[in-house]
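Let us work through a complete example step by step.
Step 1: write down the sequence.
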Amino acid sequence: MSNTTSFIAWISIFKVGCSLCFPAENNIVINNSSSSLIVVPSNLRKQTKILDLSQNNIRKIHIQDFASLEWLRSLNLSINRISNVANASFRFNRKLECLDLSRNELSNIECHFLNNITSLKYFDISSNRFLSLTLGKAFGFLKNLEYLGLGSREAIKLQKNDLKEISRNQLQEVSIGLKYLSEYELGTLLVLRTTKLHIVLPSAGTSALLNKVLHDAFTSSDTLKLSNIDCSQTCDNYINGFKALGNVRISTLLLEDLTLSWLQFTSILVPIWDTRIKNLSIMNLTLNCIRSAFQHSDRVLETLIFRRIGSSVFYSKLSLYYDFFFKLKVVNLTISNSGMNIIACPEQGNYFKFIDLTDNSITSDFFFQDCKTLNLLETLILQQNELHQFYKLSTMTRYMKSLKHLDASQNKLTLDEKTNCLWTNSLKKLNLSSNRLTDLIFTCLPSNLEVLDVEKNNIYIVPQGVNNLEMLRELYLGSNKLVRLPECSNFRNLEILYVEGNSYQEPSSHFLQNCSRLTKLNAASNPFACTCHLRDFSRIKENTQVELVGWPESYQCIYPVNLRGTLLKDFYLSEVMCNPVLLLLIILSSITVLAVVMGLTCHFLDLPWYLRMIYQWTQVKRRVMKTDLQQLHENCVYHAFVSYSEQDSGWVKEQLLPNLEERENPFRICLHERHFIPGKGIIQNIISCIEKSYKSIFILSPNFVQSEWCHYELYFAQHRVLSEQSNNLILIVLEPIPQYMIPSKYYKLKSLMAKKTYLEWPVDKSKQRLFWANLQAAIGIKITAETEETLL
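Step 2: predict the structure and record it as tokens.
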């Protein structure tokens, strides 16, 4: 089977174009194809390695055109109008390995410009206007050449000496266009030493000419590709040429671009079938209806491929159709891109091990149902058809006792209800990607599967308890609608898991605990929510030996918005934020430490003093509570009690007292130095004066906050305000007090200055009159006559 797979892959890329010689990654690529250029651009980057100038109007290559591109490795100049290439055009391009000059106007095949590029591996000068294919001596220096494309759009002759310059080189592939061949010397192609040979056959010519070409072509290499078999006018020369084949060397034959009738086709196919050829591929076949059975020898062909067959072939008699395709003695059969819509069960005794029916119109209603003759079939490929009923797909396989690989991808398969599907027990690999399947698919799978591909379906979850897939090693679930990762407990032997491009946001790394054999994981391109639930998964690359496909560039946060675009490898949340128990312990510990600190702070910041002040004020409050507010006003002796620092006494005596006591209606001002009663405690005097005064005026300055007694006076005055629910505090800022100068125990002063409007003493004399007016208005109260008499 490995030989069949390599053959099928090879025929699809028989000739690798120059532009594909090197991958684009790690190379500087410039593509100026189809740019209407008439000369080679002069501003090409010096580091260019791959340059495409195809499909332009360039007519000539000059010496200086590529002189600066010393790193150039691949150059495509095909489909231009180049008629001349200067001899030293590539002398500075010694690393050049690919050069395509096909489909131009070259007439001289000497190609002296090749002298400087001995590293060349790929060289194509086919479809030019050579009058002869006599290769110049420059070809003899191409010791590393692997691919050579030759050919002309002019009538040419081909002789042995024409190819002698490359006769000593072992090539991988040679392509020669002989569409306009007029004369051929027998044995010319035998000069070549090549593994693969592609011949574009002459469109016209004598039977003898085609006989010579085909004779040499079939004996010159291991693999032969023949193109341009056009029998729209006559086919006798081609038929005679194939019938004249004797012993052939080739084991693989590719026929491409055929236009002929069914009779002409079978007349060519029969002699080919009778040769030693093992692998036959027929592509781009335009064929009319099948009208007769195909009679061929009993020899078994290893591989037969039909690709892109004209649709009219399938509108013939079904019996002849079946006879042709499924009575063939072939081990590996491919019929692709050919419009087939029905297929019958082969007769007993067939040799089929591999059947590929890709890109047709086959439905599952009648396809191989109850077919018991495919006992040897190991691989069945049904990609890109019209299969709908998944249940019938399973029943189709139940008699295929050797089937190991089934590919039904890119169909329209559905499964609408839970059912017991009838599978063959031999099936190991199942590809159901690009269908319309849902979660129910996991109730209808063969038990011995080792590889399951259900990518690009409508699967939301993998149901728990899927216990019939113990042998599964590879599971592909990409591009579905998964909202969570599958439980690995369902697939204990799983080694490869692909779940990229789904809808889950917070996969946990714990799912790996039951996947002890997992070696490869693809979880890229999902809408990851970078939260605590994702924290362990984001460290998966560090914590496991599993190969993470697409890491790190395809693993990005989508939610929350502030983390969108962040790579998972850069996403981090601390243990504290994601562990509630640890967070609670830290909070409790912090509260305990804070309480201890606060206790110690209070101890060192005179907490006993505050307690004494509270006790004494409660005594005052008890007395105040016995007198109502009206009585308290009637008992006022002084208009205001003034609290100030001794350092500010000069301003009090020179400014404050004259403006309050020497007016027409003088205020009675209480001062500690005049009205404190000797022998009585200072605190009692303070409380007494505050109680007998309607207002309390505080002269604030840096000196004030340094005075211990001023603090007491402020303390009791503030508590009076709170007790009486009055507004009897007047603050006068004599000098600005910076916040840093106010001791911590004066926090009440800070609070008062923040909440209460205060008066500022203006230095400007013009503003002082307004200051006194505001102060007098703030004091404004009349003391009763009885009170005055008592005072006197």
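Step 3: interpret the result. The domain at 607-791 is CATH 3.40.50.10140 (Rossmann fold).
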